[in-house]
Structures are given as structure tokens and as C-alpha cells.
Amino acid sequence: MSKNFDDPNSKERSILPVKIVDYAEDIFHGLLGITLFLIAVGALFFSIERLLETKPFFPNGMIQGVNDILFIVIILEILRTVIARFTDGVYQLDKFLIIGVIAAVRHILTVGASLTLGSTKDPEAFTRSLLELGVNAGIVVALVLAIYMSKQAHRK
């Protein structure tokens, strides 16, 4: 049974008025959103700088650029989640699942690129990389299935 602190007939009382807690929470979420946006902007500038300085550009610079862009996308998706929490008052499961899919795909691309470029990999490192690819692929499948199940649950 959930506590209803707004109900005057409720025996449970909050130490602080709910409106003050809500206001403080809104300010905190606003600061988090601004901070995440500034982090994304900083990451973008850092990524561009690193992209221009990476030698050779092909393939190392390109792989690093894709990795950095996906990292920025993850930050922006977290920002969208904070904004949704700020506006709707709830965290949305689908958004966190999507962030997980992006992170797992980012790792798959990074490991796959390192396998492609690493011509002198010892068998143990190669086996570990293949295991990472398999685990991350399983994570992507599980998260996509969870997104599907979540969307089906919302339809009912």
C-alpha cells in the first residue's frame, strides 16, 4: 500500500511539505539536464579535436569517431530521460532499454573493429574478444525483447 502524503486524512506525514520536495526535485533535475547537455557539448568538441588529430585517419580515426558519436548519443538519450522525468514525473523504462541497446552496439562495433585491425592478436585475446561479442549480442537481443514486451504491455 502506497503512502499518500497529500491526503489530509492520512496518518502518515512527511517531515517536509511535498510541494517543497517537488520544487527541490525539479531544480535538481533541471541542473542535471543542463550538466548533461554541457557534457555532450564538451564531448562533441573533444571528439572533433581527437578525430582531426588521429593518425592515420583511416581506419583508426574513423572507428574512434563512430565510437565517440555513439557515446554522445548515449549522453543525449540520458538527457532525454531526465527531461521526460522532469516533465512527466516518471522515468520511462523504454528509454533506459534503448540506452542499453546503444551502449551494447557501441561495444560490439568497437570490439569488431579491433578484431578487424588487430592482425597480431594472440589466441587468448582473440577468444576473449569473440566471447565479448557474443555476450553483447545476447544483451542486445535481450534488451530488444524487453523493449518489445514493454511496448506490448503498454498497448493493453
Pick out its properties.
about 160 residues, mainly alpha, flat
Name the helicity range: over 70%
In angstroms, what is the radius of gyration?
A: 22 Å
Shape: flat
Number of extended strands: 0
* Count of all domains: 2
Largest sheet: none
> What does the average pLDDT come to?
87
Strand composition percent: under 5%
- List SSEs in N-to-C order: HHHH
Low-confidence stretches: none
**Gap from first CA to last CA:** 24 Å
SS field, number of helical segments: 4
Q: What class would the helix/strand composition place it in?
A: mainly alpha
Would you kindly provide a written description of the structure presented here, covering whatever features stand out?
With about 160 residues, the chain is mostly helical. About 80% of the residues lie in helices and about 0% in strands. Helix 2 runs antiparallel to helix 3 (about 95-115) and helix 3 (about 95-115) packs antiparallel against helix 4 (about 125-155). The longest helix has about 35 residues, at about 20-55.
Strand and helix layout:
Layout lengths: L17 H36 L3 H32 L4 H25 L5 H33 L1
Helix pairs in contact: 1-2, 2-3, 3-4
Compact overview of the structure:
With 156 residues, the protein is mainly α. The chain contains four helices and no strands. The chain starts with 17 loop residues before the first helix and ends with a helix.
